Amino acid sequence: MSPILEGQDLALRFGAVRALDDVSLSLWPGEVVAIVGESGSGKSTLLRVLAGLMEPQAGRVLYHDAEGAAQDVHALREAERRTLMRRDWGFVHQNARDGLRMGVSAGGNIGERLMAAGGRHYGNIRAAAAEWMSRVEMDPARMDEAPRNFSGGMQQRLQIARCLVTRPRLVFMDEPTGGLDVSVQARLLDLIRSLVAELGLAVLFVTHDIAAARLLAHRIVVMRHGRIVEEGLADRVLDDPRHPYTQLLVASVLAA
Ligand SMILES: Nc1ncnc2c1ncn2[C@@H]1O[C@H](COP(=O)(O)OP(=O)(O)OP(=O)(O)O)[C@@H](O)[C@H]1O
Prior knowledge:
Blueprint: E1 5-14, E2 17-27, E3 32-36, H1 43-50, E4 58-64, E5 70-72, H2 78-87, E6 89-92, H3 96-99, H4 106-116, H5 122-135, H6 152-164, E7 170-174, H7 182-199, E8 202-206, H8 210-216, E9 219-224, E10 227-233, H9 234-239, H10 244-255
The structure holds adenosine-5'-triphosphate (ATP).
Domain ABC transporter: 5-250
Protein name: Putative phosphonate transport system ATP-binding protein
GO molecular function, one term: ATP binding
């Protein structure tokens, strides 16, 4: 079996800041990996480079598709990259507004992504949108309402439904529960966990929240100053952190 995604020797600087400094990371099919680290450590930059949204200055990203062919993500033509993002990948943003179209109804947000992936039959698309609203525990009777009528947590559920309706193989998430109330976060994390397990998704997600990493991730990658300082199985990294920086990170959470 080959990894589903491989970042090889990635580097990216912003002026004097090394946001990524020779980072390599592989993600395996069905694996959930959390990228943790303090603010400014390069987590979002790594996610965006791996997701093809930002060009690295060195290194490359390989995606192994369902047929086993390796594709160099940053060498794809724009149209090919967009097809990949619609068909095989999903991206869940921290701010639901970045992942939703606020002028389109809730059901339309889900249906639109199905149409972009080739769905044509209006009745089937509407039925799928209703089914996905139920799966993310939203009331399908509200599918014609605009996203702004829903709370932040519900908007995030809608963004997840929009992302998963096309059954991607690989999902990127940038702080998917960031900015929400603690009780809302906990329910959303539970939902994400059950959907990810049920669909067998490979997920790469960025979080500040060590508890979220423990709940969702099989493996944890710890970043500092643009480098990976430690990685390993989630329980091992959190219960027996080896790098002093990870020890501080875990201890600061326990103390909080
Ligand atoms: N577009 C940009 N222009 C200039 N500097 C940037 C840009 N994007 C990121 N940086 C810098 O690169 C470094 C890594 O940023 P990044 O956003 O990847 O960190 P992060 O770990 O995701 O932080 P946070 O948790 O606060 O989102 C930081 O020093 C940041 O200021």
